Amino acid sequence: MLLVCTGNAYYSPFAEILTRQLLVTALGERGAAGFLVSSAGTEAIDGRCIEPLAAAGLASRGCGRAASRFRSRRVDSHLVGDADVVLTAGRSHRATVLRLAPHAAGKVFLLGEWNALCAGLLPAQNAATLPVDPVSRARRLVVLANPRVNTGPATVYSPEGPSPRSLAREAAGLARTLVPIGTTEPDLAGDRAKPAENGGNR
After folding, report:
1. Which of 34, 68, 72, 127 could form a disulfide with 8 if both were Cys (CB 3.0 to 4.6 A apart)?
2. Of 201, 183, 180, 141, which Cα lies nearest the Cα of 28?
3. Domain coordinates of the chain in residue numbers?
4. Alpha-helical regions (H) of 76-133
């Protein structure tokens, strides 16, 4: 899973690190090892630290060490090609990703779009027809969501700009992102979910 925003210093690193935590909380270290979560920015300058507000939001959720180790990087065609699914913060980011890697059109979604598509798909699918293994289930959902791509909200950015409240909303959205693959529940994104620190920038 590759998460993409503009500078890879606020939204996408927050999403990357928190998603790893949610996976470990739900699946344990061994189960979460099947997922490789990373992030990048369409205009990122390589090697920059995460923004202080995002770092504080991660620290409050038990991810301070991973936040301190994070360094930004710019998205490229290789990162996109290596990912099974690419979730972008807004339409402009999706457009940039597709300019870099046109062949990836079937696996690049807006974050909010992915949530909405999967929520709509699951009731129509017999649970028994989807793989039980979370990684296989996630890959199957990408295939099922593909025909409906580019129908979601324009952006996940908050009108109020960066704030603890907007981070809380993003955390809840990330938890919903993982629900369709059978890994976690939305309330795991709150401050009270603080498993042991795991991993840095991968």
Report:
1. 72
2. 183
3. 2-189
4. 77-82, 91-100, 111-124
